[in-house]
Structure formats: C-alpha cells, structure tokens
C-alpha cells in the first residue's frame, strides 16, 4: 500500500519527513524505514546541528555530529531541514556564561550563523534560523540574546543566514503557534513582519506541532492559523509533529491520537503554501516525549515492535 512521502508528494506537497538522531542509526530495521523514500522524503537532525554541538567553544567549530544525518539524507536523496542556528536551549555554556557587550555578542552571533550556514550551504532545503524566541503570552523570551541585543538579534541572525546560504529557505520555528493565539499573533507581527519591514528575508514559519491527546487544535483552527501566516507571503511547514498520550496506550487514546495526526495532515493539505510535514521521529523508542513529559509517551507512528500505530493510517486517510 502507498506510503507517506509518496502520498504527500502526489497530494502536491514537497515531502513527508522525519527527525532522526545519530544514536538511533544502529538499529537495522529503523534505518531501513528511515531511508525508504516512499515513506520519508526529508530528514531533520534532532540534535547534531544545535549550538552546543557545533560551536562548543567560542570560535571552535565541530560539524561531525550534524554531518552524520546530513550525509545520510544526501546518500538517500532526501531533503534536509537544518535545525537550528539560534536557540536559548542546548546552547553552548560559554554563550550564557560570558559577560557580553552588544558589539562582541553581535560578532559572535554573526560568526556562528555564518560559519554554520556556510558549512552546510547547498545541502539544506531549509534552515530553522531562530527557534522558540517567544513566550506563550507573545512577549519575547528573555535569553542572553534578547538581554544583550534586544529583538534585533533576530534580524542579525536572519541577515547573516541569508548571506551565508542564499538557496536555503529561512524559517522561524516555534511551538504553541499552531492555532490563533497571542503567541501566533506575535510570531506574525513581531517576527515575520518585523523582518519583512526591515527588508530582511524570511521564507517560512515552522509549526512544531507537539500535540497531546485530549487537547490539540482542531482542523479548522489549524487551517485558519496557517492561512494567517501564508497571507503574509511566507510558507509554513509542520516541523516537529508528534502526539503524546497518557500511558498506557489503549484503543481509545490511540484513536484520539490518530484523529490528531489526521487533522494536522489534512490542514497542511488544505493550505497551498504548507510545503510539507515532518514528524519528530517515527519510532516510539526514539521519541523525546517520555524523557520530558512524565507519564506521557507512545507519541510516534511505529510501536517498539515495529508495528504501526492507528495514527499511521489516519495520516494515510488524510493524504
Ligand atoms: C529535542 C530532541 O529531540 C531531544 O533529543 C533533546 O534532548 C532535546 O531537544 N523543540 C525543538 C527540538 O525545537 O529541537 C527539540 O528536540 C524538541 C522541542
């Protein structure tokens, strides 16, 4: 039967993809599914391109971790979403621990973005340039970049990324911006329009879409929200889709999960400028969820024994 990426492409999308991580690549059956381009036409490295891995000391760069997934995508002829250049979390400690002036943090930020984006230039379909810069109430998240540079750090990052990799689509990526809310309004006004008004390129907004059975935006909510973004002239993508449930799994919560995966996929299909869907890994043992949300799990599309969740078929239904 037809598989996720081939169905997504037949429906006019660029890809159906997944995140993956270096430590997951020694399980043969997992890698077979990961590398099957009928199933997945796009990869995102879950961790290897983050600041802590790439620039662990000021001016010291290490691309080895990120290159494992980047090179696998190239070998498999899969698109690569590169993730991410600037984020408050999984940052190298030296960024938070230094005493910065505006001048020297600007220089360090430009150097990080430029060196990293140039390294993978030509390989990235898209870059998540800035990740999670907003609080849920729509104010800017108070991190080292905001403290020292104010919101202009976002302009500095996008400008440097545009110069370093002219071919990559440049994205702002966040969670809780999947339905109309103060936070999604702020993403439109204070990130997308903020950059556009300054003449700085932004090509898309990544809707992470880390959802929970029992509380997630409806199909119509998601469509209206995507359209509010695309009305500004940018693409959207579902970048980190997973749907956690309260353990243990049963027929009821798995059916609820299937409905949510189906609605999110369906929303993307109904919005022309929603370019593709990425799940934040597809195999339950590789999910970040149980480690972060106590009592929750089974958020992905394949169970531990490699049988498929009902949600897999929910997605197929929507496609
Ligand atoms: C997660 C990874 O999956 C984990 O392995 C890591 O320990 C923490 O980060 N939003 C993001 C992703 O943008 O980078 C996060 O990935 C999940 C939430």
TrEMBL record:
GO CC annotations on file: extracellular region
Protein name: Beta-xylanase
Pathway in which the depicted protein is active: Glycan degradation; xylan degradation
Similarity comment: family membership: Belongs to the glycosyl hydrolase 10 (cellulase F) family.
Portion of the full-length sequence here: 18 to 336 of 424
Domain spans labelled GH10: 1-318
Origin: domain of life: Eukaryota
KW Iron (keyword) present: no
The enzyme's E.C. designation: 3.2.1.8
Subcellular location: Secreted
Molecular function terms, GO-annotated: endo-1,4-beta-xylanase activity
Any single GO BP term: xylan catabolic process
List of catalytic residues: 240 (nucleophile)
Enzymatic reactions: Endohydrolysis of (1->4)-beta-D-xylosidic linkages in xylans
Keywords associated with the record: Carbohydrate metabolism, Glycosidase, Hydrolase, Polysaccharide degradation, Secreted, Signal, Xylan degradation
